[in-house]
Amino acid sequence: MKVLTKISEIRDLISDRNPEILRLPPEFVKKVDIDPDYSYTIQKEFSVEGKATFENKDAIVKVIPVQNGMSGFSWNGTRYDLDSQKCIKGNHNIQLGEVKVIEHPLAWMLAFGVYADFTLSESSFPTFDYCDQVYMDQSKGNWKKLEKRKKISVSSPFALVWDKGYCILEPETQETKGLLIDHQVEYPGTTVGKSRILTELTPENFSYFGDARTTAFRNKKDAESFYQIGLAGGLKDYPFTLENVLLLDEEKIYNIRNKFKDPRSDYNYEFICHELIDIISWLRFVEEKYEGKFFGKMTTFLFDHHKQIDIAQFSCNPEELEKHGIRIGN
């Protein structure tokens, strides 16, 4: 990856972004019972059950109040602090030590300012039918307010650029009251195409779109085959069903949930909403490292989980940031 810090280089990088911008419909919000200026943990532990994503076995995830001030993920007797340096580039997920597919709970923690400890009966988190809804349901009315969150941001804009794709972080401005996200994807066909969305992350809008399903984009032939497999009950060796995965090809979404359909445009937001869940998760490492709430703008393109590990490790390394004249803090 390359690091860009010159404003002119960053402007050139984004010069060909799609000028047509999607925004979440105004009704895509739910009321929440938290104050975004504060951090939280849960009062009482709870458990959620599902099929472990890689093991395809019945699995239990126990969520308990944070124990030592830093969130952690445990499996097989080993606990891993939420430290980006412990991340491993595994099979298309964010893996922390031996614990896999942590991106979805991380996104929930980021959106709500949650500190918690997770213990898994298998090494990978389940792929739930309603993604982060399982955590939101169990934590409602189960909050314990912690300290007021200090504001953290990046001192000056920078971009990380890979062979394909990039991520740009910019400081807070008067327009950004929290995390402003400008995300673009690129897929063949018309179902997704070069969709670009601009939105602020809030607990209220995450409460609405946090149940968007993991996506499976396939060519038409493979998607038709997957759909028939889904109708027959799903894959034998992988917990894929038509309930926990959004299946689509270049021209068609096979298992639409009308909740995500915008009545004004007929555009279905579920794909791009799950993209938001995936791409924001790495920032939770930054918030735990610098002990605050991140304010600023993030602009992304072709930003997969391995790139997210790269930028998390870069951003959580003050010495490396200093080499490029960058600082993250309050």
From TrEMBL:
GO terms for cellular component: membrane. GO terms for biological process: lipid A biosynthetic process. Gene3D superfamilies: lpxc deacetylase, domain 2 (3.30.1700.10). Keywords: Acyltransferase, Transferase. Pfam families: LpxC (PF03331). InterPro entries: UDP-acyl_GlcNac_deAcase, UDP-acyl_GlcNac_deAcase_C. GO terms for molecular function: acyltransferase activity; UDP-3-O-acyl-N-acetylglucosamine deacetylase activity. Catalyzes the hydrolysis of UDP-3-O-myristoyl-N-acetylglucosamine to form UDP-3-O-myristoylglucosamine and acetate, the committed step in lipid A biosynthesis. This is UDP-3-O-(3-hydroxymyristoyl)glucosamine N-acyltransferase. It comes from Leptospira andrefontaineae.
